[in-house]
Amino acid sequence: MGGVRRQARHGRRRRPDADAPRHAPPGARPARWAAVDCGSVTAEFAVVLPAVVAVALLLVGLTRTVAVSMRCQDAAAAVVRELVVTGGQTDAAAVARDVAGVDASVAVRRAQDRVTVNVTCPVLPGPLGVLPAQVSGEAVGVAP
Fold first, then answer.
1. Which of 18, 60, 96, 120 is 20 to 30 A removed from 43 (C-alpha atoms)?
2. From the DSSP assignment, how many helices (H) and strands (E) are in the chain?
3. What tens digit of pLDDT does each residue of 54-92 get?
4. 79 closest CA partner among 110, 113, 108, 112
5. Under a CB-based contact definition with an 8 Å cutoff, are residues 84 and 115 in contact?
6. CB–CB of 67/83 below 8 Å?
7. Per-residue CA distances from 48 to 44, 55, 116 (Å)
8. Residues 115, 83: contact at Cβ < 8 Å?
9. Are 121 and 68 in contact (CB under 8 A)?
């Protein structure tokens, strides 16, 4: 083969990084990048946190609005039921307040044999006015 002789390995000095893999694993960054990325997680968290809080507040507000709306509709149905059963001899506002709370307002309309009740309930408004300030429920009953 040619006259070139290879030198024995045991006599040579080894590099300190000789045992390191030649290619870094996927996603690994060289050490020089680590100093540049210091604090990036904190910055990303600081940017995302207000959005997460805003979404959480919106969900809580929507849940409250739906709950008040359901109570308001239940109050309207209860008032109509009482008016039909007693023949109009009951206090509609008292029945509505028992079901929907003390802030509920009631409007009763009678037309021939029908009784229509509209109950309006206030909702704690959101900070940006996204949620409604009040909700209403309506029920119709037929008097015998």
1. 60
2. 3, 3
3. 899 888 888 988 999 999 999 999 999 999 998 888 898
4. 108
5. yes
6. no
7. 6, 11, 48
8. yes
9. yes
